[in-house]
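FORM 7B: Structural annotation worksheet

SECTION A. Query
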Amino acid sequence: MSSSSAAPAAKPPIRDALVGAAFRLFLEHGYEQTTVDDIVALAGVGRRSFFRYFPSKEDVVFPDHERCLADMTAFLAAGGPEHDPVRRVCDAARLVLRMYAENPTFSVQRYRLTRQVPGLRAYELSVVWRYERALAEYLRARFAGRPDGTLNADVIAAAVVAAHNNALRSWLRSDGKDDPGAAVDHALGLVQRTFGRTTAAQAATPPKATPVAAAWLGAGDAEAGPAQSDDVVVLVARRDAPLWRVVQELETALGRG
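SECTION B. Predicted structure
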């Protein structure tokens, strides 16, 4: 005689059980009113188990960011010189979006909770800063030796984070119903169009190049002295160099400075 009884459902891993219990209590009783003891009691585990997985109650609200940050760092480290750096950091930001999109219900609940609790908003800002720092460190290495390399790296990293978060929050405000990929692609596309051309132009500029440089192309020695009447003066300037600097360098080259 066969049995038709179903096997009992497997218990979720301890880490998942703690996160599930925490958010159930946060939604029912509020974040501030919920203690770690409440969470472990509902999850059916000991207090030591909680701190084995999460250093604090705040960390249980953001259980997936450490893994995502590690994935992003590894992705950036795997990039080679053949990869466009601006495109690479934009693709790295998409890893964060994928993490949020894996569980829209949880992501929306967390978004609502962080909007209500000032301490969680501050914690979230610290998490965002770590993502931005990872992007900036990668770009600083790629732009080393270029004019304003560090400045460009920091500005682009901040722009990527701002564009990503703008699209992400729009998706979360829609309760996760809109297409997050399309919104983030649109936002990051703006970053690539804005900064991609700048960094490409910089890549073609020799390291340590000055914003404006002048040289004489005469019939003889390339290192000739002051320009003669039959010399040709070639002025090389960055597109964004101020006009007064261009004129100043030209006057110097002609011996009129």
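SECTION C. Observations
The domain at 64-203 is CATH 1.10.357.10 (Tetracycline Repressor; domain 2). The first strand starts at residue 212 and ends at 217.

SECTION D. Sign-off
Analyst initials: ____
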